[in-house]
Amino acid sequence: MLKGINPLLNADVLQALRAMGHGDDLIIADSNFPSDSVARQTRLGRLLRIDAPAPAVAKAVLSLYPLDTFVDDAAARMEVVGSPDEVPLVQREVQAAIDAAEGKPWPMIAVERYAFYERSKRAYCVIQTGERRFYGCFAFRKGVIPPDAA
Which residues form the signal peptide (predicted)? Predict the structure, then answer.
């Protein structure tokens, strides 16, 4: 345990978050996502796990991880197949975690399922969660922390 660090963030996840640079993508995936096979294609090349619901994982990650302010797709969710405008409860809960972490409403774009898989393969890493609800899959692009920020 460390002061000020969410206990869900294990050593492997902390190392990956620290190693990532500006513009790298992080995938937070539900338990149905092909996390292991996709993770093998990422920069890290192996799967990370946090066995908790996706909103709790997003909150923990975003407590340390800055979102990219230079792009419109820094936060993304997997689109519901056949219903692209639907936003399931799990996605609304993660949206609330994003807004709280950023201190303001933050746009989260929808990405078609297969396009989300392709984005995930190009990501730095994948964290598989214990989320059992469908469409609990998210991509977060890392931003920067200014020199004068804590």
Answer: none
117 catalytic per annotation: yes
Task: Answer positive or negative: Cα dihedral of 12, 13, 18, 21.
Answer: positive
Q: What percent of the chain has pLDDT over 90?
A: 97
Residues 63/32, Cβ–Cβ less than 8 Å: no
Does 2 score more than 90 pLDDT?
no
And the tokens for 59?
A: 């909150």
25 is catalytic: no
Task: Compute the distance between CA of residue 141 and CA of residue 92 in angstroms, rounded to an integer.
Answer: 19
Given 25, 68, 124, 135, the catalytic residue: 68
Q: Over 70: is that where the pLDDT of 15 sits?
A: yes
Domains of the chain: 23-141 (3.40.1650.10)
